[in-house]
Amino acid sequence: MVSLESTPASDAQICQADALKYWNSIPATVNGMLGGFPHVSRIDLRGSSAFFEKLRRLHSSPPPSRLQRGVDCGAGIGRVTAGFLSKVCQIVDIVEPVEKFASEVCRQNMSGEGKLGEVHMVGLQDWIPSEKYDVIWIQWCLGHLTDQELERYLSRCLPALKSEGWIVVKENVSTDPDGDDIFDEEDSSVTRTDAKFRSLFEMAGLKILETEVQTGFPKGLYPVKFYALQPE
Hints:
232 residues; alpha/beta; two-stranded antiparallel sheet; 7 helices; 26% strand; globular
């Protein structure tokens, strides 16, 4: 287990007000959500679908045809909700602090039969789940939480999981040669190492069921890793 005190406190530089200011300056489009790489959206959604299909096949008994309820945390404009989660869940709630993004979710055409559920316009650090979920999907948003906020957030998610439910984290992973987290001043976020993620998951009382790297993304981008989690 990695000691959080032994590495530079990159997360101490996070300012959520600065992060909100940044995201409010970004257009509510797929291009805006993906930082000028809209062409990776289809690859990303296919990768998520394949990973989740494998997770259900290996860790459900018997695997249900469709899950009752999921939640898309840090949903943005609902790209993942519309393009993936609506295909595997009957209802998808969203958590998204930027008002113009949350409003755009309601205008999305769902690729699957799932319907949009509750819209929580709040940051993850302040979200308290009020439903029980088959899957809590968290993608490209945990970098805006400090280590302590992330641990607390995941701990709050535990009682919101159904008995065989999963938390799935899909995030960029640091490639720093010294093995440190990387702070990005532009959007006030931290890209964490694999070791840091594993440490925080353990501290939150979670075990890793499956993990793999997303394939097919352009060279020069951070590696993107899936972690499928359940309570210890």
